[in-house]
Task: structure prediction
Amino acid sequence: MAQTPRPRRAGGSFALRRVVRFAVSLAVLLVASFAMIHLIPGDPVRASLGPAAPVELVAARRAALGLDQPIPDQLLSYVRDVLGGEFGTSFISGEPVRDVIAARLPNTLGLALLATVVALLVAVPLGMWAAIRTENGRNRGTEAAFTTATGAAVAVPEFLYSIALVAVFAIGFGWFPPAGKGGPESFVLPILALAIAPTAMIARISRVETLRELGTDHIRLARAKRLPAARLYVRHVLPNTLTATLTVGGLLLTGLIAGSVLVEYVFAWPGLGLRIVESITQKDYPVAQGVILVYGAIVLAVNLLVDLLLGALDPTSALKET
Amino acid sequence: MRHLLRSPAGIAGTLLVTLMVILAIVGPPIWGAEAERIDSTAILQGVSAAHPLGTDNLGRDILARVLVAGRLSLALALLATLIGAGAGVVLGALPSVLPRRAARLVTGTVNALVAFPGLLLAMFTAVIAGLGARGAVLGIGAAVAPGFARLTQTLAASVAGADYVSAARMLGVSRWRVMSRHVLPNIAEPLILNLTQALGGALLGLAGMSFLGLGVQPPSFDWGRLLFDGFSRIYATPAVALGPAAAVALAGIGFNLLGDVLARAAARGSAPEAKATGRAVPDTGGIGEPDPDAVLEVRDLTVTFPGGVTPVRGLSLTVAPGEIVGLVGESGSGKSLTASAIGGLVPYPGEVSAGRLRLCGADLGELPETERRRLLGTSLAMVFQDPMASLNPALRVGGQLAEVAIVHQGASRTEAGNRAVDRLEHVRVPEPGRRARQHPHELSGGMRQRAVIAMGLMGEPRLIIADEPTTALDVTVQREILRLLRQVTDETGAATLFISHDIAVVGELCHRVVVMYAGRVVEELPVEELVSGAAHPYTRALVASLPDMETDRSLPLASIPGRQPSPAEVGGGCAFAARCELATARCAELPPLISYGTAHRVACWEA
Result:
């Protein structure tokens, strides 16, 4: 079982492969968002302006959007525009989609990031605590309570937490504003609504990972060294549980970005999510197209970042995968 | 199905899902008329006795509407799940039947889609398919599909290596046929069990879409739509929103809890639980005076697990300074657990009891906690079987060594680091300075085992417990590690307890041999007597099973017929009797470990 040291270069090619995969996915996303408008049955401009709109207006709008050009030309100019930061203009308000995104994106990202941080800070210690308490099947009661509670918490979607939080803490107690973005207190309920389910999920992963780690030989050896509990858990156990925990955390962040659509809707939070819902119901296709593209690109970028981060943190795990 | 009711989560899930299904069946016939009855005198009312959840803008009773909406909510979720699962299974099975390039493309697409949030996929699809139930169902179906595709791929890959699949391939059965006849039927069960979880997800997704106004449109209504209507009135009458919200939450929790249990049941077949019989037989008789010179003195050590399983039974052992004692036995004889018990590392729920357990002249049972930790941390070094696993992969090698000195000897970071490098050099790790800064995976197996031994040398070890330290290494590296252990023992004057199932290695390295069988010591003898002077039939059989230069290689290797009883099966008599050629009626009684010449003890009536 003697093993030669791993070549260092492998880490570099791993990062390269991931970046290439990211670029390909991005290209596919770009084509998909372009195709979206064309896949809509019938005429999107007619659908958006309504049956009563004059024929000339529809034709003029089609020409302005370039919909009268051949499809390959349209794709080329679409890609060129998007790469140049140009996403077209809203059917409804006439404002450039770029401005909509620039104004709204920071609000969405801020919410999602804060919720992720809160979830990780609560969930990792919680999961470790549960693991240490329930190691080798001791404290069966704690284990049952933990699995049932986290299982139930994961199963409730963000928008229900949002509604419940608004009903209880904003309307019932009046402690926090029920809607809108204002001072720090206006962040509390949206962040809570977004963070509860991921917290439960990450806590479960953290517990399972900690349990696995506690059973390893190197922890047996570390226990044989009689290290103080804090050192044992923080220095020896925690780093080895983080890979899986952060992977799930990263994937949950992308889920959080999507979940923020519903949370923003409940809290009338001026983010991209609220806008995408409005644009779909109003058939404002350029806005829907641009926002979906941005959401998709963020998700891809987050996945890439998580992969690269994990590659740097834990070279062995990165090399194992394809 | 019984495992569903074993955990609280399973019980709650089954109960909630049953309720939901009953509601979907009986809801519309019972409350259908009530839900549609327009009452202009009672519009937009709050909670009242007549309308427990209030009324909507046409005066219809919201509670009745919630109860009726269950059917549509569940039906749409079921439809979306079936669409998604169907598409997913096809997508997941494709790579197995397509040519390599196309297969990679499909796999890549599935991998990209799995990482993509379902809600975004659903919205994308809904934009194309248009607002309304049809768009939402297709959208949620699209969101369910990638997960099923991934699951199908994983499951298909897990049976692809099965003999019957290989056999079908060898017979020239086409790939489509292999997939449809051999693979899919065998993975159908886990796929179906995972439907429950997907159904829960689809239900919540559809509720979300309807809540955003992108799903079910009036005059139809599902829970999401009721929530959409109620939410606009949440300031005035919160109950009208909370009713449908509670329905969605309960359904979501029910399907998820049940799905969780089912998916876990699919992932692993339930393992049969070991029946525990047998009982501990404590050794009677005095344990004598403590031996002041011994490094380790164990009397009547017993390790018990709940249910009366007793892997170590009344074991006694003395190790003198500088002595290398071999503890041999088959796997399951309790030798590793003995090592764990001495080191205080027996995992919960195991219980250790001992008439005496002394290390370096101090009674471990009476020592205060802090001193015990210090003594065990510095005087006892442990080396485990798998050097790949005994170093923490996340920490640098040097740091893992250094912390012993930092924690127990109050050394500074630099001192401890220097000492670690020095110890690594001592166990002849080449370039110790560089190795100390590396992570374990950058070291070879032999080097890692050296590092673990060096870790033991960070303190002032009086006893080294090496638990099968060379089993995981190849033969040349084995020799080096054995030589190193002997050298370390010579230099430090520490004693070594060497645990192994390999009697040849033990004969080579050790001064004294202790043979264990089914949790008890059956013989204890100087190594010189091992080959020709062993008295216990088990020891003799072990020695006889070793091939040597004179062994006729054309004959099968000698082995001991039968197998060692498991800790739960050990009865009151001699545990080896069933396999012993010399066994008599007397062997039903437990033979005591008695003196048999100088420094030689044996537990056998016939010796």
About this structure: Chain A touches chain B through 80 residues (CB under 8 Å). Residues 198 and 252 of chain A are 6 Å apart (CA to CA).
